[in-house]
């Protein structure tokens, strides 16, 4: 696929409902922004992994046994694991490279669980746990939580301890922490991870591509508009930045974001010379 085809396909998916988006395909299209990716071939590899597990899988098995077996298949048999040596490598967020290297970060490894689970008709989804993406199998009344970074099954007590560690004991575990994340939210979080890495590296073109895709997922979100404006500034396009900041001031109700936009706009406004 050409870059224009990749972007057009992602835009089409982003305009669809959460239920209509193929999460794995969209994630592969994110990777295809910076490298050549055969999306169909990698989707085929996920099909193959699901088929390999399905050959020894009994759908009548209790959910707990099925989830434990699938997690062992992913992490032990297939060797998927967290990349503890190079956690902030952008490739950890590219699903094609995660499939190639069997290494990733929580959210990209969660996509392996979700993709295989969906192909096996298991009730599965991602949960936007603060600071560490998790996978949930099962319904709202009875569910199982897996840490995709390690493959370990987590009890509610484990989740509470994890949250305390991640939040510095400032956040308490709530039922909302176990809710399935909408597909667009998962993709936006993946893009956030990449954007933060590219921003630290001062890779403005790649950062901008991330924000532009986030805006496709969440059109006109003020936070993204401000970030895009800042990137326009860094790339020497102040007029485009001014337009975005003005847009935020006219449409955003959040006072904090309005204040940021106002300050950025003021910094770009030419000042008349002072006469002494």
Task: Identify the notable features of this structure and list them briefly.
alpha+beta; 2 domains; 276 residues; globular; two-stranded parallel ribbon; Serine Threonine Protein Phosphatase 5, Tetratricopeptide repeat
Task: Write structural notes for this entry.
The chain is α+β, with helices and mostly antiparallel strands. It folds into two domains: 3-178, C8orf32 fold; 183-191 and 202-268, Tetratricopeptide repeat domain (Serine Threonine Protein Phosphatase 5, Tetratricopeptide repeat, Alpha Horseshoe), CATH 1.25.40.10. Helix content is 57%, strand content 8%. The chain is built from twelve helices and six strands. The chain has helices at 3-14, 23-31, 39-54, 63-77, 95-101, 106-119, 156-167, 183-200, 204-217, 222-234, 238-251, 255-268; strands spanning 81-82, 103-104, 124-127, 134-138, 143-147, 152-154. The longest helix has 18 residues, at 183-200. The chain is globular and about 70 Å long. The mean pLDDT is 94.
CATH architecture of the largest domain: Roll
Strand content: 5-15%
Number of helices: 12
Terminal CA distance: 61 Å
Oligomeric category: single chain
Cα Rg = 21 Å
CATH fold node name of the largest domain = C8orf32 fold
Q: Enumerate the strands of the largest sheet in spatial order, edge to edge or round the barrel.
A: 3-4-5-6
Q: Could you list the spans in which at least 5 consecutive residues all have pLDDT below 50?
A: none
Helix-strand sequence: HHHHEHEHEEEEHHHHHH
Query: What is the helix content?
Result: 55-70%
What top-tier CATH class of the largest domain fits best? Alpha Beta
Q: Number of domains in the coordinates?
A: 2
